[in-house]
Amino acid sequence: xxxxxxxxxxxxxxxxxxxxxxxxxxxxxxxxxxxxxxxxxxxxxxxxxxxxxxxxxxxxxxxxxxxxxxxxxxxxxxxxxxxxxxxxxxxxxxxxxxxxxxxxxxxxxxxxxxxxxxxxxxxxxxxxxxxxxxxxxxxxxxxxxxxxxxxxxxxxxxxxxxxxxxxxxxxxxxxxxxxxxxxxxxxxxxxxxxxxxxxxxxxxxxxxxxxxxxxxxxxxxxxxxxxxxxxxxxxxxxxxxxxxxxxxxxxxxxxxxxxxxxxxxxxxxxxxxxxxxxxxxxxxxxxxxxxxxxxxxxxxxxxxxxxxxxxxxxxxxxxxxxxxxxxxxxxxxxxxxxxxxxxxxxxxxxxxxxxxxxxxxxxxxxxxxxxxxxxxxxxxxxxxxxxxxxxxxxxxxxxxxxxxxxxxxxxxxxxxxxxxxxxxxxxxxxxxxxxxxxxxxxxxxxxxxxxxxxxxxxxxxxxxxxxxxxxxxxxxxxxxxxxxxxxxxxxxxxxxxxxxxxxxxxxxxxxxxxxxxxxxxxxxxxxxxxxxxxxxxxxxxxxxxxxxxxxxxxxxxxxxxxxxxxxxxxxxxxxxxxxxxxxxxxxxxxxxxxxxxxxxxxxxxxxxxxxxxxxxxxxxxxxxxxxxxxxxxxxxxxxxxxxxxxxxxxxxxxxxxxxxxxxxxxxxxxxxxxxxxxxxxxxxxxxxxxxxxxxxx
Length: 697
Known about the structure:
With 697 residues, this protein is mainly β. The protein folds into four domains: 22-154 and 164-248, no CATH class; 268-349, Immunoglobulins (Immunoglobulin-like); 362-442 and 455-558 and 595-618; 630-696, Immunoglobulin-like. Helices cover 11% and strands 37% of the residues. The strands form 13 sheets. Strands 25, 27, 30, 32, 37, 38, 39 and 41 form an eight-stranded antiparallel sheet that branches. The chain has a seven-stranded antiparallel sheet with strand order 26-31-40-33-34-35-36. Strands 16, 19, 20, 22, 23 and 24 form a six-stranded mixed sheet that branches.
């Protein structure tokens, strides 16, 4: 079939303003498996995350006796990221062909690549790296990319980005060797012309590697399938299969199969919908990122029921009520199969209490906290990163990589938190801990400490394929704020009530509870204050089920919401709305400071250490016994609207409802008080002779 030449640009969406840069992308997939990495490359390219300068194709003219032709190629090899921060990404011919087909492109032949090098104004000298097993890994890919980009930057004054470049990578090419070689299928590579030797290639045509192979030196050059021959529209495939025309593009004769054969591509979810907590009346958007052969179809599910008319990769739920709370997932399907995402939990809060303290760690608040550390060898071994952007950090869930999503109580674009590590700053393994207390905030009476918690750990479920991974997040209340509170029993003074949880269930005591002792040696309450100590207990298996959590019965690698609630002398530990512990207050510790922290009660160092950390976000304390909300005044204005004035405790958030019959109520406004009187105007009041109002938390 003859096709028209069409526009000489890559047919891709506009790059999103929040798309990953090349550097962030290499960080994300630095330690991903080959297949996982290629899923992410596919997702980035097809979503439009490629530099603008790569999109405008360059013409290459070719001729044989009696015929001329023109084809168009990308100015450089396939790249991910922005114009300024991009990554020339090696990939297998399987992915290269998949992308080429979707974009209406081919890959070049040996003859085409020779012509590209001849026509390229920018001829780079190949940069080699000593052969090793690491040459197929992303860290080496990124290393080579940085060297090539530095080399390319030396030409930008005379030849800006978007100028045709050659010599920086070997090409994955189309060749008769795709079908001539016996199984297994091979990748055919060629190129790396040497400018210093007048264009002699470093890499002759070879098919020595299987089609699943890609190393740092490989590049994917896209060639638009549509081309012209003798001034008439044609395409690359037709020309390569033509006995009369193949010489325009091939020096191997007719290429009967001018592409790599690829299997069907069943859907895979790369980013799962995230859990969120909101007030009644607010709206949320749940979204996913999936890959697979198009077209992909989406069906959103709420509490086991498929939601009608929810067929996109995102789903907006507006004006949420308590009935909308629950578990949400999405089923992604194509002709090759379907996959269901992990569950996101949506919580709808129907009440609110005045804030006594809050830190969302959007800025560096280190000066507002006191830090205490402890270690069995007396050497400080911890880190505390403030306003840490965890959205740029990958985590592995059942071996697949994803960026850490925003916390449940954070907006969609907010990914900063307090990040803590222990026992991984040096080569000496020693039990260690770090505690943090807000400097100018003490609490008494009825109050609740709330925060979002992410406990990361190395390895797969249970910490398998790692060592030294078991570490515990710490949190407590009624502390003096002058001691290091952690698990090892000792004669060192301790105080308050505190709790601990491990992320992956690798300890005999994954869940712990303690009471301090100013005379030394804290009291271990685990056996009496908790339903069980180990993640294998049915209680924890039900709370943190397999599939939703990598390690069943343990809350790691997923945001969970935590509360420590003190009400009428009872202390509760609550996770994701479920009470884990109920303990009567001790007379010695009924008021004081809150605490967050991290501890390692084992001397072994986590490996890989980069994956052992905890995140605290949206830490706040709420007053559970606030003064009553009072209407200071209610007046009808000349235009019929009604003005209301209210007072309450500072930072008190509440709903103002309106009704005409005391039965059906509508939310008029949600307000947060300050030290001043709050005023609200009911614009719906005109036309009603009688109007009723109430304020509720």
